[in-house]
Amino acid sequence: MTTLGDVLAALEAAYPPATAESWDAVGLVCGDRAEPVSKVLFCVDPVESTVDEVLEVGAQLLVAHHPLMLRGVTGVPADDPKGGLVHRLIRAGVALYTAHTNADAANPGVSDALADALGLRVTGPLVPADEGADTGIGRIGELDHPEPLRDFARRVAEALPTTAWGVRAAGDPDRPVRRVAVCGGAGDSYLTAAARAGVDAYVTADLRHHPAGEHLAAGGPALVDVAHWASEWPWCGQAAHVVRTALGGTVEVLVSTRRTDPWTVGVTSRTGGSQ
Ligand SMILES: [Zn+2]
Fold first, then answer.
1. How is the quaternary structure described (predicted)?
2. Could you tell me the distance, in angstroms and rounded to a whole number, from the CA of residue 183 to the centre of ligand 1?
């Protein structure tokens, strides 16, 4: 019999909790390590739709990238949105486990999964953990052949799950792209690192007007901005592979099919519309 403790041991070997940032909240949110587990669902966000999904598929463990409760709470009442999710999970005998910045820092980790999805051959971290280290935040990788930014943006859109507003790129659409930096999740703070790395493009999420514009004006790499959820979704497959490799045969692994990107409508102005 495989227990929750066995599954968590496999995950923690791949994503050691001690490597999480000090402000983070990773690990077991609810669940009994002695209980049996035969099916695990992997998702980015522990929200209503993925809790619905884990109950529908009959898994005993939901592994999420984002923490349910990042800041301290004094209770989990059922009439609170997050407390309600905890109630639903515990009533159904489902555990919730989070691997967040420890999954970002791991090798392979969140950004390796993103790089793999885009067809990049990873050559090293974007921001090394220590001088000369081969781990750290983000990844730098290379395409087999250079392609114009417009084609590269299309590649990104086709490699990642569909979102309401898709993928947008900043920079000359004809600019050749071969060396690429990627950072799953919000990567604003690594714009300078991407510029220093001398890559042709930087793929990340949650980029803002002023930092993006100033970065381009200073001659930085082209930017490809994707939905935060989409940038981290490839990690679900990687984490599922970790559990399948360690416990395959006794535990079935599933990747969430629910789109938990909060943005649900994307429209573009008609030709001639205001700028
Ligand atoms: Zn994230």
1. Homohexamer.
2. 10
Note the pLDDT tens digit of each residue in 151-184: 999 999 999 999 999 999 999 999 999 999 999 9
pLDDT higher than 90, residue 15: yes
> What CATH superfamily classification does 4-100+232-255 receive?
NIF3 (NGG1p interacting factor 3)-like (3.40.1390.30)
C-alpha 54 to ligand 1 mean position (Å):
20
Structure confidence by residue, pLDDT tens digits, 31-71: 999 999 999 999 999 999 999 999 999 999 999 999 999 98
Note whether 129 and 21 are within 8 A (CB): no
| Protein fold of 107-226 | 3.40.1390
What pLDDT sits at residue 248?
82
Give span(s): CATH 3.40.1390.30, the chain. Answer: 4-100+232-255, 107-226
